[in-house]
Amino acid sequence: MGTGTLAILALLPVIVVAVFLVGLKWPASKAMPLSYIVAVLLALFVWDVAFPKVAAASVHGLIVAITLLFIIFGAILLLNTLQESGGLHTIRRGFTDITPDRRIQVIIIAWLFGSFIEGSAGFGTPAAVAVPLLVGLGFPAMAAVVSGMVIQSTPVSFGAVGTPMIVGVGTGIEPLTQIANVSDFVFGVAGKVALLHTIAGLLIPLFLVGILTRFFGKNKSFSEGLKVWKFALFASLAMTIPYLIVANLLGPEFPSMIGGLLGLAIVIPAAKKGFLMPKENEIWDFEAKDRWDPTWTGRVELKQSDIYAGKISMWRAWAPYVLIAVLLLISRLTVAGDWLKSAKITIPNIFGTEISSSWEILFSPGFIFIVVAVVTYYMHGMKGREFARAWKDSGKTMVAAGSALVFTVPMVQVFLNSGGGASGYEKMPLVLAEGVADLAGSVYPIFATFIGGLGAFVAGSNTVSNMMFSLFQFGVGENIGGDPAWMVALQAVGGAAGNMICVHNVVAASAVVGLVGKEGHVIRKTLVPFFYYALLLGSIGYSIMWTADKGIFNIGSIIAVIIWAIVIYVIATNNKRLNAIEHKRNIA
């Protein structure tokens, strides 16, 4: 069977997700079983994978789903515990004291705090921390989830203390004999990755506020978000400049963590002093809750009353989040992590195959969330019935999320473990990537980021995407006469951007705030920032590799200039559109 035909067949599970989940807006609990069935049928009857291996991949997927549900439960439990204790009320009041403007709040929490948590823990943890915090501040659940997914881009390559680079890229290119020192290669690629992320990440806070006002504002106007473009760019640079410096000086472990932390230290005091902040008469907020679109809200309902006023001090309210950050850092950067990892449940060689599964239960962020929830119970002086109610409500939400994840993750594992069948075909992701490379030829660098993004979309992990495709991207770079290191860098940034549209990350983030069944609505809103990210950086990567041969006016530089020209035009003409909105409002 030809490469093109195989590539189309390998794409079918993804097409099913695109059509039913994103296009027809089916809930993941209905769309993902279809995708799983398609992947299983392809593995069995086209790739000729033995049934025990397909079954083993499915079981492994179920175990991974359980580990995700454990994280979801812990995140929901902490949210509900803080709700019951009154801590969320205090946190909400603290952010309102900085500014009641939702655009500024989402930049500080999702972009800066989320980047710090991504650097500390990765693997979807920012959504489990930042998304419920936004809901606690009064954001619609869908607005919070979309915001949490959009920032799953720039900081992701250096998430979990550099895991996508050190483990993902490092493991992926390890078989290459021409690389004498894998660590040195990864260090060099990390600098390139940080530079690319800094370029594209400049506009991510703008996308955050623009999407917020376009989809969740009264006037459905992107322009109302762009009104704070100066503050958004300031917050972006406050994170990405330290991030870029750290990546080039220290390597891939700390850019997101230090960038997010320094960004918070710079931006919050500046915001309190009114630097680049909206004027009092320009404060933007959501409409009253009774006027929200029903699709915006989930099963997790947070009280907004003043019955908690003064109950919990500011330092005690924030202590659980500080404790989470500290425990994540300790577990990831000290020998304590090795001890926690030793508590492992392992199922080797499932059904006699090479597929094994394990769960480091104490190392999981879910365990840390639960520990902090218990500490909060005592720290906030809660009553037993309040804490019991938090556990009960969290269990209900976790069960609702399980119906989607029990098919989503097994589909991913069947897809990833489809190699080694009697047909002799490569695993489905590699076949798909080879088909794109054959079709694209020398312009492939523009598409390299989309291959990385597709890997993350399917696998749910930038690390796994890098492990799958880094060797392939390196080889394509050699074959077309480009710099293989830049090709691997394009893979890494594309894999990071793919987290914005990754199905099981969206399912997990939605489940934390009870937004089960509306995953397609979320992905439709994050597709635009994903395409911006992948296309801009793919074009820049092409220009970097081919400017010496083709001159500065090549297809890559032209596409990048067009994208930036559109951005500059939209910002420059924003006041005109805002005036038109105000005029219509006055007439009405």
TrEMBL record:
Keyword field contains Transmembrane helix: yes
GO cellular component: plasma membrane
Protein's UniProt keywords contain Membrane: yes
Alphabetical list of InterPro entries matching this protein: Lactate_perm
Superkingdom of this protein's organism: Bacteria
Signal sequence segment: none
TM stretches of this protein: 6-24, 31-50, 62-82, 103-123, 129-151, 156-173, 193-216, 228-248, 254-271, 318-337, 357-378, 398-416, 436-459, 527-546, 552-572
Localisation: Cell membrane
The entry's keywords: Cell membrane, Membrane, Transmembrane, Transmembrane helix, Transport
A GO molecular-function descriptor: lactate transmembrane transporter activity
Record membrane topology: Multi-pass membrane protein
Main location class: membrane
Protein family: Belongs to the lactate permease family.
PANTHER family, per database record: GLYCOLATE PERMEASE GLCA-RELATED (PTHR30003:SF0), L-LACTATE PERMEASE (PTHR30003)
Function noted in UniProt: Uptake of L-lactate across the membrane. Can also transport D-lactate and glycolate.
Protein name: L-lactate permease
